[in-house]
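Bump. Still looking for biotin--[biotin carboxyl-carrier protein] ligase structure tokens.
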Amino acid sequence: MTPRDAADDNHANTPPGSRWSDLDRPPLNTTALRRGLVREGGLWTGVDVVQRTGSTNSDLVARAAAGSAAEGAVLVAEEQTAGRGRLDRQWTAPPRSGLFFSVLLRPREVPVARWGWLPLLTGVAVATGLSRAAGVDTALKWPNDLLVTVGGEERKAGGILAERAGDDGVVIGVGVNVTLRAEELPVPQAGSLALAGAVSTDRDPLLRAMLRSLEDWYGRWRGAGGDPVVSGLQETYVAGCATLGRVVRAELPGDRSVVGEAVAVDADGRLVLATGTGLQEPVGAGDIVHLRSA
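Sorry for the wait, here they are.
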């Protein structure tokens, strides 16, 4: 990757002395991102890039509560110090080694009962955008993990977290490991686009690709009143879901767990497990562990 010219207009986002601390990880170009994403009649109404923050999700939820963020606001951090995944797991990575961003959506036309599809919709959009821009085969682990293959092994390279923002809003956070090196992996099961053989790790086009894909899928879903069948979302998610057809363990709230074959994703976005007792149990919330192929 070639570093940008020193006159890059994003220099205000980077403290003196740290701008080129890692030449393989140049900062994002805020002005170019806004130019490429914010347009009249489009979903994205603003793109802000901060050098460092605790959590983009927490920050954007607070902005929404204060009335200072419109639908389509995008907040990106070069580094997160208190990033969160599902079940309040911590998400950390070196500065500029990934893409960590949150978006504010207000799907007023969609019944709240269908909002549970938003994390799955985001997963489809992220996987689609990255496949096109990075040239990496991706898969989705229900409900919100992005998987890549590194050395023949399935690794988690990204995750999604959705949080309510008032009565009519949802903030969706996305974290993707882009240039994380093997020695930087937080756990052996982690991966990155670079380790998966990405043809490009330039974060600017990768971010644009993900957000454009999200705008497209969100528009389809919202236009269909949130119907996952009419919008094509359910079919597309199922086609890219690596969890289906496998024996998994669902670790559920209340210290309960269920083992079974993942056989479907139902109309509510729940994972349906066929258990050893012959019953089919839908799982709407929980941690899924892939045990083996069915």
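Residues 203-223 form the longest helix (21 residues).

Edit: fixed formatting.
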